[in-house]
Write a structure and sequence with these properties.
Mean pLDDT: 88
Helix content: under 10%
Number of helices: 1
Number of strands: 38
CATH architecture of the largest domain: Sandwich
Number of domains: 4
Length: 533
């Protein structure tokens, strides 16, 4: 059963058969929406209260029956927490003694009837500034016969569905006048730098060895071993709270004995090489503990970042990595490019415009075309249309950015693909090749070749779904990340599989986006995956 801050509708499939060895098709009756609506609702699902140690605190929730006359069971429960931070009821252990219900623990309510769940909490006298308590509210369900109304033989299986509405209510208490000293006892168990949707993501695993719940934040920095001072601080969050807006997204709550995961995207450009991932526990506006973990960014590890930011040298970059100028309606006749020097020494830059065959391109220009950036500095340059631009055909070229530094650590060159669009775009014409299974760095990948048989560039954007044939579980992956595919060019979309996929038979579906108002290309096949890949 999955529990969340919203109501959860539990579905139990009940199958009975007189002769299990006989397999016959079963007709099903269509269920109407009103048949599967929740039996009741509760407001609010989470209460946030303030109190002092030892104080007796009253609480109240409003419960409304919705669909039918229903019998509801209400009981305090202990709670457990999984790695994502999600909280679940622990019905196997005794309920918390500090929470007492003053309203009935079992109710029979007619439809559209409202009542209250009431009780008190004696705030523990421990040195914890935060406590949380749970109340499990469950109805006894209703069984709906889904078997076809057509007459059936006695030995044929009968199918019914039982719908159960269940809420896990939570009461969070901030205890006044108590310092969060137990935050310093949290264990920063592990840290890693990983790819998520093509971007670099930091992940920290935290363990609470204390007997008290804790509320805290995690501040992170990714430190370059060459210059640890050049780094941005960013916050991590529990996966279960990733859809919330800041600052709630970054507020972590951990139960006693729990082990949770905190993660967040790195806001800076990551270049290949060694780093240190620094994580700091923050509670009550104080930093309580810091740990560092050695991590390694491999070349090509973050393809979505590479499609947006061009690496000139280690610590030197330019963005955007792809530039489109246009004389068409709605297009842009100039584009600002940001050049960044994140190294520890100054660097000199020289910029030029070339065609795809490395000849001087006079259909676009850049200014300024040379400048110096101090350590940690950045500046914008402007790419504009040139005086000798054609009007009858699109043009393709590159903005060349060269950097040099006194010690040579910032020496490098990058080419930023540049397009001039002057004719109305024709329909795209992408052709897909045969799938293959390859190893991309340390990760396996499913690779599909793509050829642009059209006359205009197309941003490559793909999604892949692996659906387990037996249980319907689905794994989703992305690829391409908007990287431009020029006319007449063949490239590959690589769907890197960073997570462990259980062995079994899967339906593999690949969807390639050809642009707005254009049909999506679809490739579908059956595959069998094993532990060995």
């Amino acid at each position: 059963m999955i529990y969340s801050r919203l109501s959860t509708l539990a579905v139990a499939l009940l199958l009975t058969a007189a002769h299990p060895a006989t397999a016959q098709p079963i007709g099903f009756r269509e269920l109407r929406a009103e048949q599967v609506k929740p039996a009741f609702s509760v407001e609010p699902v989470v209460q946030r209260l303030e109190a002092r140690r030892g104080q007796l605190l009253p609480f109240r929730f409003d419960l409304t029956s919705l669909a039918r006359t229903t019998t509801i069971d209400i009981r305090p429960v202990q709670m457990t927490q999984d790695l994502t931070g999600a909280v679940h009821p622990d019905v196997d252990n005794p309920p918390p003694g500090e929470l007492t219900l003053t309203s009935p623990s079992r109710l029979v309510l007619d439809e559209d009837t409202q009542t209250q769940i009431e009780g008190t909490i004696r705030v523990p006298t421990t040195n914890s500034p935060f406590h949380t308590f749970g109340i499990l509210v469950t109805d006894y369900g209703r069984r709906i016969d889904t078997t076809s109304p057509q007459p059936q033989a006695a030995e044929e299986p009968q199918m019914s569905i039982e719908f159960i509405t269940r809420y896990l209510l939570r009461i969070d208490i901030d205890v006044q006048g108590v310092r969060p000293e137990n935050a310093g006892k949290l264990i920063l168990e592990a840290g890693e730098l990983r790819e998520e949707q093509g971007y670099p993501q930091s992940r920290i695993v935290i363990v609470n060895p204390t007997e008290s719940p804790l509320e805290f934040q995690v501040e992170c920095r990714l430190l370059s071993t060459s210059d640890p001072s050049l780094s941005d601080t960013f916050n991590l969050g529990m996966p279960v709270r990733c859809e919330l807006p800041p600052p709630e997204r970054h507020l972590a709550r951990i139960l006693p004995g729990a082990r949770i995961r905190m993660e967040g995207f790195v806001p800076q450009t990551i270049f290949p090489g060694p780093y240190e991932l620094e994580a700091t526990i923050v509670a009550g506006r104080r930093k309580w503990k810091t740990a560092r973990f050695p991590v390694l960014a491999e070349d090509g590890a973050f393809p979505a970042q590479s499609a947006l930011v061009a690496q000139i040298a280690s610590g030197v970059s330019a963005a955007p990595a792809q530039i489109e100028l246009s004389t068409l309606r709605g297009g842009s006749r100039f584009v600002a490019v940001t050049v960044n020097n994140a190294t520890a020494e100054p660097a000199d830059f020289r910029l030029s415009t070339v065609t795809l065959d490395d000849q001087l391109a006079n259909w676009f220009a850049v200014r300024p075309d040379n400048f110096r950036l101090q350590a940690g500095g950045s500046r914008k340059v402007l790419v504009t249309l040139g005086n000798n631009r054609p009007t009858d055909a699109d043009q393709y070229g590159a903005l060349v950015v060269e950097s040099q530094s006194p010690a040579g650590t910032a020496n490098g060159t990058a080419q930023l693909l540049t397009v001039l669009s002057v004719v109305d775009p024709p329909p795209p014409n992408l052709q897909l090749g045969d799938l293959s299974w390859q190893v991309d760095g340390n990760l396996p990948a499913i690779v599909v070749p793509v050829t642009n048989a059209g006359t205009r560039f197309v941003p490559l954007q793909g999604r892949m779904q692996l659906t387990d044939i037996d249980n319907g579980s689905r794994f989703e992956f992305t690829g391409g990340y908007g990287r431009w595919l020029l006319p007449g060019v063949t490239d590959s979309i690589r769907f890197r599989i960073a997570q462990k996929i259980p062995s079994g038979k899967y339906e593999l579906k690949i969807l390639i986006n050809q642009g707005e108002d254009q049909p999506t290309l679809e490739l579908k096949t059956l595959v069998e995956l094993s532990e060995g890949g």
